[in-house]
Amino acid sequence: MDAILLQLLNGLDKGGAYALIALGLTLVFGTLGVVNFAHGALFMLGAFCAVTFNKLLGLEKVVVDETQTTAWGTALEIRTPYIESWFGEFGSFLLNYSVPVSIIVAIPVMLVIGIVMERGLIKHFYKRPHADQILVTFGLAIVLQEIIKHYFGANPIPQAAPAAVAGSADIGAWLGLGDGLVYPWWRLVYFGFSAAVIAAVFAFLQFTTYGMVVRAGMRDSETVGLLGINIQKRFTVVFGIAAVVAGLAGVMYTPILPPDYHMGMDFLVLSFVVVVVGGMGSLPGAVLAGFLLGVLQSFASMNAVMTIFPGINQIIIYLVAVVILLTMPRGLLGREGVMED
Amino acid sequence: MKEMLNREPFALAAFSLVILLMPIWLTPFGANYPDLLQKFAIFAIFAMGFNILFGLTGYLSFGHAAFLGVGSYAAVWSFKLFTMNVIPAIFFGVAFAGIFALAIGYVSLRRSGIYFSILTLAFAQMSYNLAYSVLTPITNGETGLQLTLQDPRIIDNAFTTPGAGLPETNLFGIDMSGYPGFYFCAVVLIICFFITRRIFNSPFGLTLRGIKSNQNRMGYTGLNTRPYTLTAFVISGMFAGLAGSLLAVTDPLAGAERMQWTASGEVVLMTILGGVGTLIGPMLGAWLIKYLENIFSSFNEITLEHFFSFLPEGLQSFAVELASLFVGEGWHLTLGVLFMLIVIFLPGGLMEGWRRLLRRFSGGGGGKSEPAAAVQPAE
């Protein structure tokens, strides 16, 4: 029982990341009809927003204190981050909470990146075949990740979660299941965060006039355009929002997985599978499939399962995708008429 | 001239001449050394095979590197278990890649368009993950599969006593390293060219083109398209397996990174760069990419400083800084940029550019704007 609950929790945070990326992919596909292979790169860029922010905060002033010496006999260097010497308490608070605080930085940055990407490149590919869209965004993904590699190096850069949530939560005690069940706080935070972001996106689309127009545009953009609404502009904003969602997923994921330049592609392949399983163009499907596949993957990595099917944890997602595509070609919640052939 | 080239014997003779004389005509370009020449021939085969699928049927596979990897593994196992002769190695490489392609193609080809791309990508990533983890006894995981002194090599050891060092791959006694290795790959490439040319001109090739331009209509005429696409998929998988086994022939190693999506992306790029659906375009694309890779990745800061030494001090360091993004370790950035530029501005690749040039010079100002043979996805 404990083990099953633990795997369920394990799956939820990974599933949260899949769901957030897949949500953005589906939004872009549903509005602009573009298959964006560079979406994983946006996730990666978000993660590197957090890294950059943390690096900037961590710039240190080095004071050499001649009176004290270290164990090696050299003068002691006292390092204080500028931010602490300027703001004192608040500075160290910022440093501690650098990952969540970098959300504030990441939102405008990702929005701008998304809109520039759409206006500068993707706009010219609406009328081109899907193969061309795949190819050009694939090229863009390579370019983005190589630029990151040039400036940040090829090694993963670990990021610390805030001290308050760095430990583990004693979930077993809450549920009265005994002491054995502990789970990292940050992963619970991540799950809550992804749920909140997903809820916000859905609320935006469902309860605002802007969102209503976007939904109408997803159904039939031509008619919406004939009604005198500049639907193209709104779709560009939606692309920006999708970029923000992917970026935020990346920012918050940094304490779980130290970011490196190719994390985007790793997640992208899985997220595409998620989108296909959920049903191309279906937002609830993307979210559902994201969590479902995350949980399935973590169950597949249980020891009990691994002894029966060795290596199943590596391929379970792909296997599920193959089975789903062959039995329900539209995916779990796919709508009729979207990407039908 | 053109009519002559359309006749098969002439086309083959001309092609063979160009390929076999590569060590001579590539010398002025500084590309005349066996390692690079071998790569030219091998990746030309890979791209040609990929083009049979993507160019003729329009199905964009993002997992072709998996077949390359399988071919390599099978070939190295043949070296380890049976003999260092390359013929069985190639046979096993092609056969295993073919079987593998049959299985993957059977499932993936049930869907088309973007679904097909994602399915093949998923299968390739699955193979890559498996090669890295569970299949370590077969693939030797991260280290890669290598020859060892303890290998059984039953056939070789039955006839000769093993030497002290690791044996070399050979073709009935001819060592397959250096120029002999290149000539061997070149002959295989010429055979592949012959096969590809036959496929392009056959009724089968015509059917595949029909599927590319409109699969539904092909269906309405009473043709079951799936066996045709599956055959094309398996043939192109076998070409990839052949290329993989040749990689193992010239250098008896096989690693999982050959199956990664970047490798699949590279062959897509070669084909696009050269010209999708043309006979020799993919080969030219493969040559250009391997040539550029060779040049760009050998650059470093010092060569760059030398190169920009004519500039004033400040400008020089700026130019070096900027250029160093694209060379050496950053070669993949150049690749990505090239990829985007080609897809954006020249979807028909080098062959399309060549045709445009020809039209400009011969067609009296090039007023005729003939609809370009755009890449159609399989819908």
From TrEMBL, chain A:
It is a multi-pass membrane protein. Keywords: Amino-acid transport, Cell membrane, Membrane, Transmembrane, Transmembrane helix, Transport. The keyword DNA-binding does not apply. It is found in: Cell membrane. The keyword Transmembrane applies. Pfam families: BPD_transp_2. The chain crosses the membrane at residues 15-35, 97-122, 188-214, 235-256, 268-296, 308-328. It comes from the Bacteria. Its main location: membrane. PANTHER family: ABC TRANSPORTER ATP-BINDING PROTEIN (PTHR11795:SF442), BRANCHED-CHAIN AMINO ACID TRANSPORT SYSTEM PERMEASE PROTEIN LIVH (PTHR11795). Belongs to the binding-protein-dependent transport system permease family. LivHM subfamily. This is Branched-chain amino acid ABC transporter permease.
Automatic annotation (TrEMBL), chain B:
It is a multi-pass membrane protein. The chain crosses the membrane at residues 36-54, 85-107, 114-135, 181-200, 227-247, 267-289, 333-351. It comes from the Bacteria. The keyword rRNA processing does not apply. Keywords: Cell membrane, Membrane, Transmembrane, Transmembrane helix. The keyword Cell membrane applies. InterPro entries: ABC_transp_permease (IPR001851), LivM-like (IPR043428). This is Branched-chain amino acid ABC transporter permease. It comes from Hoeflea poritis.
